[in-house]
Amino acid sequence: MEALSHMAVFLREPWLIALVAAGTCAGVYVGAIPGLSGTMAVSLLVSFTFGWEQHSALAVMVGVYVGSVFGGSRSAILLNIPGAPAAVATALDGYALAKQGRAGEAMGLATSQSVIGTLLGVLALATCAPLVAGIARNFHSIDYLMLSLMGLMMVGSLSGRSVRFGLIAGCIGIFLGCVGVDGQTAVKRFTFNIVYLNSGVDYVVAMIGLFGASEALSQITDMKATPVKQKVDKILPSWTESAKYLWLTVKSSIIGVLVGALPGAGGDIAALLSYDQAKRSIKNPSAPFGKGAVEGIIAPESANNAAIGGAFIPMLTLGIPGDAVTAVLISALTIQGLRPGPNLISQTPDLFWLIVASLLFASFFLLVFGLTGIKAFTKIVEVPKGILMPTILILSVIGAYAIRNSVYDILWMFGFGIIGYFLKRFNYPIAPIVLGVILTRLCEENYRRGVMLQGGSVMGMLGSIFTSYISIALFVLLVVLFVTQTEGYKHWQAKRRGEA
Amino acid sequence: MMRKIFALILVLCLAVPAFSADYPAQNITGVVQWGAGGGTDSLMRPLSAIAEQSLGKSIIIQNMTGATGSIATQYVFDAPTDGYTLLMGAENPALYDVLEISELTYNNFDCVYLIGDEVVGVVVGKNSPYKSLKEIVDAALKAPWTIKISTTGTGGLPWEVGAFITDITGAMFNQIPYDSDASAKTAVINGECDFTVCKVQSGIEDWKAGDLKFLCMLSEKPVPVMPDVPLVTAEYPDFSKYLPWGPFYGVFVKKGTDSAIQAKLSDAFTKAGPQESYQKVLANFNINFLGYSGEEAAKYISSWRENTITALKNSGAFD
After folding, report:
1. Could you tell me the residue range of the domain that residue B180 belongs to?
2. What's phi and psi for B272, nearest 5 deg?
3. CA–CA distance, A316 with A306 (Å, rounded to integer)
4. Where are the alpha helices (DSSP H) in B196-293?
5. Residue B319 belongs to a domain
6. What is the phi/psi pair of residue B111, to 5°?
7. Which residues pair with B87 in a beta bridge?
8. Chain B residues with CB-CB distance to A341 below 8 A
């Protein structure tokens, strides 16, 4: 009841609803453009809303956050260019659907799944925040190491037809992820004394180059192909269809909430892990994964939006950000005179419920803005290539520059574009490169930390797995994931099925 | 974002030579060397929002992160000395040369406004067996390299203070680097590490909730919000030679910038700093307001640098 009375603030201050709506709408477009991110938009809002009262400032920021996480799927589906790292997995099957003339259906599905994902994330935030926060806080270095190893095993899922090609691509990514000043010892690696290489390769730059620029390059060399005519009659997935995939949605959302709540991992890793999970667990997808499976949109899209609710959990209960956007929100709250930390909810319960209510309204507006623009959006795919491809290149340049305002990032972006172009020509998958760049630091730093914590003993680090329930659970999961990928297990499975 | 792109286009198209008399004739870029939402960023955005009222032009904040802030420092150093690119930084560049992060230091810049500094303390988790810094030090003296201090990497705050403690007590610690002060703090709360050093601002809420215990403060006088936490000098009087010490925050221009332009900037920030709304922000972050500019700021920074380098050298953190 108390919760309801706090949430009723939206009845007393109805303009908040308009602010959430405006934020969500702006967020969708910010998210759709590669390089413009929700983090940038929300940090701009911190200066812009300095002097506003808390409720209004928070309402618009929450809207932008939710909108931008969803927006990334738009460009992923239409152009094969994920608008944000959290949409990398969506591009795999989303773009395949667009090539079949089913972009409208894919965007409709992404919308409905993002809305359901957001709602499930809010549900977790409202009902089991302390539980999830406890897990997040007790996640040790060794646990992050195991999580990142699970992520690296996804090279298999993202490889398409040949695991060998996938492994090569993954290694390129891991190598590039090593460039820059090592955060733990301040040693420079592969920087050749160029100051601008010190900060390493930003994985968003890698993503824009590998997906955006390389796509534009490959399409320009193949100008004769006519754009695919898009069907727009079937946009909203039917209830029966949504119900059919409900279990997948729920599973993916749970992954989203948990990974989103971890301070060291966010929606991008959540989306990739749940794509992997869908690919492993679904025996008969609607189409093979990577060739337009709707399951390949459902899993990452529900997970990355559920990660929003997840990221708010440590932020509101512990004062520790779950991702980059919540880090900005913590500073916004402090500037506004609030004190983010373990006492925030007991001191200002109204604020907690304001955020919950804002998230609920934001998911409603996501449905509205996500579905109304689809017909116009599908026209993008039908734009002649002579116009579309240069536009993509220009957007890629702006996006790469905007991340850190660095001209070097534009060069990196083109470098990645050219690598991506050749890899595509020779049928190498490119998603494993992004995976490698995203996970290298997480994996390496936590491995080194795990060893250092045991006084330099690798065996000691392995032994430390058996000192916490979280570590043991992750270890079992890791072993299961590994074993089920081996040839021996697949053989045994096939044989067992043959006998049955 | 549109503002940023618009500003970029403006800068590219209208790169007309600026004269100090009509400065500022265009919007000013404030390059923050740490990420959006971090401590530095949170202090610079509201300050800029107030200062731009008296400047008459906008200060557009850009976060340029990476390599302990040296990317941003290099960027501002490479920009023209026309006062349109400001470096908004924390204490880190003062030590870049000795830590071999970059050849640039604050010696290559003039401080137009030194906002303030903050107090740091030694903290342990709530279940820690250690009741004082002395107990930690004694344990480390008995078994060197076994007591784990969580740091934010070489050159970070806990690393520096760890070196001070080593210098004064001779105790050696196992340094475990984390990627942010939030994760270094979490490592102490969940028991992965034994202790760390954190700013009052980043530990106060966990302290109120009982998750963190402040063992002592590196300060000359008690911290008003935590009056009962003892000072480090109570156990180790030798510490007084390094005090006051703490991270500081300031706004800088490249050396060689016209003095009239510097004066205009200092003036705008000096007017903005003491305003009530900004003082509230500083209070929320537990920052000791200094509000220095010109000579005073330069003196503060150079003595900070001398003190820190002496301690780091004595502790053997580098030679």
Report:
1. 120-245
2. -75, -40
3. 16
4. 200-209, 232-235, 259-272, 276-284
5. no
6. -85, 115
7. B31, B252
8. 204-206, 208-209
Question: Could you tell me if B160 and B104 lie in one domain?
Answer: no
Q: How distant, in Å, are the alpha carbons of A56, A475, B171, B249 from that of A47?
A: 14, 44, 44, 18
Of the candidates B245, B276, B303, which is a domain's last residue? B245
Q: Are A342 and B206 in contact (CB under 8 A)?
A: yes
Which pTM value belongs to this model? 0.81
Q: Using alpha carbons, select from B180, B167, B181, B151 the residue that is nearest to residue B317.
A: B167
Alpha-carbon gap, residue A407 to A196, rounded angstroms: 9
**pLDDT (tens digit, 9 = 90+) per residue, A340-385?**
888 888 888 888 888 999 999 999 999 998 888 787 777 777 788 7
**Which stretches of A183-258 are assigned E, i.e. beta strand?**
188-189
Element (H, E) at A345: helix A344-347
> Distance (Å, rounded) from C-alpha A186 to C-alpha B100?
8
Count of CB pairs separated by less than 8 Å, A with B: 171
Share of chain A above pLDDT 70, in %: 96
In a domain, residue B318? The reply is no
CA-to-CA distance for A61 and A355, rounded, in angstroms? 10
Q: Could B64 and A186 be called an inter-chain contact, meaning their C-beta atoms sit closer than 8 Å?
A: no
Find, in chain A, the residue whose alpha carbon is nearest to that of B149. Answer: A453
ipTM of the complex: 0.78
For B272-304, how does the pLDDT look when each residue is reduced to its tens digit (9 = 90+)?
889 888 888 888 788 888 889 888 889 889 888
The enclosing H or E element of A286 equals none
| N-to-C CA span, chain A | 55
What per-residue string of b and e applies to A32-71 under the rule 16 or more CB within 10 Å gives b? bbbbbbbbbbbbbbbbbbbeeebbbbbbbbbbbbbbbbbb
Q: Which residues of B touch A329 (CB under 8 A)?
A: 37
- On chain A, the residues whose CB falls within 8 A of the CB of B179 are 183, 264, 441, 445
Q: Which domain holds residue A71?
A: 2-467
User: Do the domain assignments include residue A299?
Assistant: yes
Cα–Cα distance, A373 to A74 (Å, whole number): 10
DSSP character at residue A210: I
Partner-chain contact A44 B3, CB within 8 Å: yes
Residue of A163, A89, A81 whose CA lies nearest to A399: A81
Burial class (CB in 10 A: 0-12, 13-18, 19+), B21: exposed
Q: How far apart are CA A188 and CA A194, in angstroms?
A: 10
User: Residue B250 — φ and ψ, nearest 5°?
Assistant: -155, 170
Q: How far apart are the C-alpha atoms of A76 and A63, rounded to whole Å?
A: 21
Beta bridge partner(s), residue B204 = none
- The number of residues in chain A equals 500
Give the helix, strand, coil percentages of chain B, each rounded to 5: 45, 20, 35
Distance between CA atoms of residues B291 and B267, nearest Å:
11
C-alpha A274/C-alpha A413 separation (Å) is 27
